[in-house]
Write a structure and sequence with these properties.
Two copies of one chain form a homodimer.
Chain A: E1 4-14, H1 22-27, E2 32-37, H2 41-44, H3 47-57, E3 61-65, H4 74-87, E4 91-96, H5 98-111, H6 119-122, E5 133-137, E6 149-154, E7 161-166, E8 174-177, H7 187-205, H8 213-235, H9 240-254, H10 267-279, H11 283-298, H12 303-314, H13 323-340, H14 357-365, H15 380-389
Parallel strand pairs in A: 1-8, 2-3, 2-4, 4-5, 5-8
Antiparallel strand pairs in A: 6-7
Helix pairs in contact in A: 4-5, 7-8, 7-9, 7-11, 8-9, 8-12, 10-11, 10-14, 11-13, 12-13, 14-15
Chain lengths: ~400, ~400
């Protein structure tokens, strides 16, 4: 187990109806906020109106910026920074999922920086401060409501580039999590969000670090929760039990509790970012293609860990004479699960051509001379093989 | 699942050697601290000297107050409050386990209150602020390093009274957790600390709340971690793997993550506080007597939950035709475990007479007309029966 620091100061307010009280919770943090949201659903569902009413009631003023898209764009972040400065706002309220929250986080650090906010993503510049970011969460998926991560796509480049950063300063100060808001999500979004949760756990689970029994078991607990709850949420969208388990699991999956003392891999995320950036493929769907392919490519290098995954997470009966077979059975069970929840397992399933695999593989590593991932460092050549294995 | 708020702002620094750097971590919080510690081991082990050297090196001044005993006393809390005021200190550094940390927390809120600090414990007065409390943890047990709880014994009363409070304001700002500090603990302290961790989880686990699958599984993960690690730590005291798993589990067991959305019971804790207050019985040892007795007294009221506990935590093979038998088997396994780690299962084992059971039972409920616990509300009569069942 590695030494670690853990700092998770986000105040979480969780439960049915809490989103209606956002004004009350926010008013002690700010009285002038930038209200950031997405495109259609938050308006259609009436949530935006209810949030505004709550802000009005508590005397919190706001300037609106809608239009955040999946794989959120740098250009909109810049617009948000300009709005905050122009109107003298002092906090950002994100109403939405990962893309909206990531946009808000990026605005938060951008406002406090005089240069180009993309410097944080492209030059390794470390953000020192942010204006406070608060969240009303509408989907169980990215875990951005408490995480120190955000991912932005630079849409000014000829070939759009998707890049993530991880700094504690970007953790929101407040996350209001109301599982009933996820009742109206399309099934595909629910499924993709659920698989994103699982991927966040699995990136941490596959480690070479020894002496991490506790976080192993916490990872397994989180995965089993999603495996149980997700199919119920898909068949009964207004089932509070499964929706609430998914929402709470999405936060814990990515607030770094599960990576304490471990070194995660994250190659699958970076491999999945490439088709998402080029073809606007939903993050969870990119992961459902890439993650099983990555597992099949690397599992022989650590049969013991993949067998543990199979037995403890997927209830595979151990084949004591053939642990490799046991390990493989776990991957198969996961693929069956992906099929069952309606996500793609191949690029063809997702309608994505394979004309640009070489380009994607090079961008995933950052060039021929670099390797990607900690559990099993991959060359661009390995990544190309992985992409090709799931045409 | 109930609505909840969750706020855990303690900055955690975890790992071998981190305790030596306390001065560096503390210096950004305070330059004048009250240094609180216990009786012998922290001095004998050289830890206190190393902490002081680190403080000196970083220019953090301190006033010392040693002598904290298990079941920490109100009189020493009052002394600490006076020292802080007299020397114009602005933070408390606790070097020790639960008793030392609880003393520090109580001093923290006491300094900011003009009245008698016991008011918070006896009158339900809510503390509004505290001076910052930082911790160097020396035992995996109480979880006080991140919890919102502290328990103090009023030693001015003819019959000493042990009372706990729970307020977010008392959570420490910094917890430095170095598992190597626990290598030299006597086996009995290691065992009692380990069972205390388990009890913190079990108080949360036994709930009537439905729709809490995720926290159920997280509780089970924590219990299984302790069940695996504790016997190793007892047989190989300097095994870093098991010591680090126990220390991290002790924090998570009691920082309220595992009670999110649930209603815990806590009757066993309150029942165990009584013999501890009267006979200075170690907290974990009082719990190892009381908790199995409580389980045997109440399990028939929720066989399903106790069967889940047996199967998922203690690997009991389900008897599908007799879930009551399955449930009972889990309790038996736990009793075997308590024997194996060398803790008492009866008052006689602990050398405690049974002359004052009635008095203890009345104090546990707070009087004949009150009931104790949420999972299975107990009368003083029930408690008396439970005490008598483990003479």
């Amino acid at each position: 187990m590695k030494n670690f620091t853990y700092y998770q100061p986000t105040r979480i307010v969780f439960g049915a109806g809490e989103s209606e009280k956002i004004g009350t919770y926010l008013s002690s943090i700010s009285r002038r906020v930038l209200l950031v949201y997405g495109e259609g659903s938050v308006i259609r569902s009436g949530l935006l109106e209810r949030v505004k009413n709550s802000l009005d009631k508590e005397g919190v003023e706001y300037v609106e910026m809608g239009g955040v898209k999946p794989n959120p764009r740098l250009s909109l972040v810049e617009k948000g920074i300009a709005l905050v400065r122009q109107h003298g706002l002092d906090a950002v309220l994100a109403v939405g999922g990962g893309s909206v929250i990531d946009t808000a986080k990026s605005i938060g650090i951008g406002v406090k920086y005089e240069g180009d906010v993309w410097d944080f993503y492209s030059k390794g510049l470390v953000p020192q401060e942010t204006i406070p970011v608060a969240v009303v969460l509408t989907i169980a998926a990215a875990g951005s409501e408490c995480s120190n991560s955000n991912v932005i796509t630079n849409d000014y480049l000829h070939l759009p580039e998707k890049r993530g950063i991880n700094y504690d300063v970007t953790r929101p100060v407040l996350a209001v999590m109301d599982p009933t808001l996820t009742y109206t999500l399309p099934a595909y979004q629910t499924a993709a969000g659920g698989y994103d949760i699982m991927a966040h756990v699995m990136e941490r689970y596959f480690t070479r670090e020894e002496g991490v029994d506790f976080t192993d078991r916490m990872c397994e607990a989180t995965l089993k929760t999603v495996i149980r709850a997700l199919p119920i949420a898909l068949s009964t969208p207004d089932d509070y039990d499964s929706r609430s388990q998914l929402m709470w699991a999405s936060t814990i999956a990515h607030n770094d509790l599960l990576s304490t003392g471990r070194v995660g891999d994250w190659a699958s995320h970076r491999m999945a970012h490439q088709p998402s950036a080029l073809y606007d493929l939903t993050h969870g769907a990119a992961l459902s293609i890439i993650f099983p392919a990555w597992m099949r490519y690397v599992y022989k290098s650590d049969v013991k860990r993949f067998a543990q995954f199979a037995v403890r997470v997927w209830d595979v009966e151990p084949d004591f004479g053939d642990m490799e077979k046991t390990a493989l059975k776990g991957i198969e069970r996961m693929e069956d699960f992906i099929r069952k929840i309606g996500l793609p397992l191949t690029f063809t399933d997702a309608g994505i051509p394979y004309s640009r695999f070489e380009e994607m593989a090079l961008r995933a590593t950052g060039g021929d001379s670099f390797k990607l991932g900690a559990f099993y460092p991959l060359t661009s050549r390995d990544i190309l093989d992985i992409y090709h294995s799931v045409i």
